[in-house]
């Protein structure tokens, strides 16, 4: 068995996809009568195995003393998790930036060759080739913001 935690404020449709994807048989709904009613309605007519529904939706009351998190608190907790990811829980990671003059490097783009689906025989799917093509990057450098880059020491394009 496994426990699958749903996203924050899920819709019944998202939960239905998660239930079907992971083949979940018991769904616990914590303190949300509307969501419980929607999911119970979706799975009211589902098949039964030895008298037990294949998907059982169970409502659970919220424990006393539990306070709903505000949007501000959730943003804070998310930022804390991101900081923990980059700096470590014990702050033992030390990420840093290296500034490089663009005149000192040559930017290249690595692509795989694929055939368009319209060029393939009927019913055949396009498959990625293992052949790589290395080309000089000719786009705007600002396009590389939030992109994944790699540093390679190579004397020629063939060495990349």
TrEMBL record:
The keyword Signal is assigned to this record: no
Pfam families per UniProt: CLP1_P (PF16575)
UniProt entry keywords in alphabetical sequence: ATP-binding, Nucleotide-binding
InterPro entries cross-referenced by the UniProt entry: Clp1/Grc3, Clp1_C_sf, CLP1_P, P-loop_NTPase
Example of a GO biological process term: tRNA splicing, via endonucleolytic cleavage and ligation
Domain Clp1 P-loop, chain residue ranges per copy: 11-88
Listed PANTHER family: CLEAVAGE/POLYADENYLATION FACTOR IA SUBUNIT CLP1P, POLYRIBONUCLEOTIDE 5'-HYDROXYL-KINASE CLP1
Designated name of the protein: Clp1 P-loop domain-containing protein
Protein source organism: Spumella elongata
